Amino acid sequence: MAGRILGKTLATVSLSVALAYVTVKSSGFRSIPECRNSFSSCGFHLNSNIMSASNGAKGNSHNKARTSPYPGSKVQRSQVPNEKVGWLVEWQDYNPVEYTALSVLAGPRWADPQIRNPAGRTGLVGRGLLGRWGPNHAADPIITRWKRDKSGNKITHPISGKNILQFVAIKRKDCGEWAIPGGMVDPGEKISATLKREFGEEALNSLQKSSAEKRKLEEQLHKLFSQEHLVIYKGYVDDPRNTDNAWMETEAVNYHDETGEIMDNLTLEAGDDAGKVKWVDISDKLKLYASHSQFIKLVAEKRDAHWSEDSETDCHGL
Fold first, then answer.
1. With bands split at pLDDT 50, 70 and 90, how would you rate the model's confidence at 112?
2. What is the H or E stretch that residue 220 is in?
3. Is residue 299 part of a domain?
4. End-to-end CA distance of the chain
5. 251 and 134 in contact (C-beta within 8 Å)?
6. What gap in Å lies between CA 104 and CA 272, rounded to an integer?
7. Which residues lie below 8 Å from residue 6, measured CB to CB, with a gap of 6+?
8. Residue 124: which of 245, 302, 20 has the closest Cα?
9. CATH of the domain at 178
10. DSSP string covering 295-317, please?
11. Could you give the CA distance from residue 196 to residue 219 in angstroms, rounded to a whole number?
12. Which of 55, 107, 132, 237 has the fewest CB atoms within 10 Å distance of its CB?
């Protein structure tokens, strides 16, 4: 029984290390395994202690994985002394040799694809602030209503003659830019849940509400987010956090309060990552974070609302 448990543990550790260390020679970058909180969460602290205990060795048994040349090549590894094998040992000068066999770079079915930004080079490798290699998924709820006068009548733009649409915008704390409220999709979370959660947290300060206030808020949000909606955009986002190996992808969804009655019962209050929140008139004069201006333009087009004072460029593509 103990042998089977140990075998499973070693297999898990080996898989974690293999997945964590990815090298892509042709794209010119090297990645070193990282963990969000600590290395212990990745299971790296188990390696030498468990293996030594299993074979009775007193020293480090992580030896074959440090031999040179690498199998099937003449590549020599950087030397790693016993006392610096563990990931918990600080070693700022660690500079491992980068190597991926040509047979792997050829892209056989059994090999992972090379992780490259689909839009092209960014001038930065690694993950930056993004937690995942490859796509990092977000959701952006675009909440809109018609701008109305004191009598409740829709206000039209004097030049374009189209009704003016408004959306809920937040001012981001990290960069000070105005943006659509939204955020990262949690593991296992549905996009619809992320859209509602992020809007509540950033535009209504739901995280700081009492239990009674949260229940009342949830009722109003359910009315808003259970109605018909428009998926405005789904895919790659031109985001300042993107690198050659990690990038943002989002699903921007428009929930429109046609009469304004639902949002009239909700008080905007900035929370979480938002410093400010307000209703903003939609037009081509907007300067928003990342690709958000493009998403807002698509909403104006779908709702046949005012966008530009130039009729020739008013909502005719990006």
1. confident
2. helix 211-225
3. yes
4. 63
5. no
6. 44
7. 50, 54
8. 245
9. 3.90.79.10
10. HHHHHHHHTT----S-TTTTTS-
11. 12
12. 55
Dihedral sign (CA 318, 134, 106, 26): positive
Retrieve residue 105's tokens: 């770079």
Please give the backbone phi and psi of residue 90, each rounded to the nearest 5 degrees, phi first.
Answer: -70, 130
Residue with tokens 């796509």: 135
| pLDDT confidence of residue 114 | 84
Query: What does the pLDDT look like over 5-54, one tens digit per residue?
Result: 444 444 444 444 344 444 433 344 444 444 443 333 444 444 444 444 33
- 21 found inside a domain: no
Select from 293, 191, 178, 186 the least CA-distant residue to 237.
293
Identity of residue 288: L
**Largest alpha-carbon pair distance within the chain?**
85
Express each pLDDT in 253-271 by its tens digit: 999 999 999 999 899 999 9
What single-letter DSSP state applies at residue 189? -
Res 63: pLDDT: 87
Mind listing the pLDDT tens digit for each residue in 179-226? 999 999 999 999 999 999 999 999 999 999 999 999 999 999 999 999
Range of the domain at 158: 135-303
pTM as predicted: 0.70
Instruction: Specify if 263 maps to a domain.
Output: yes
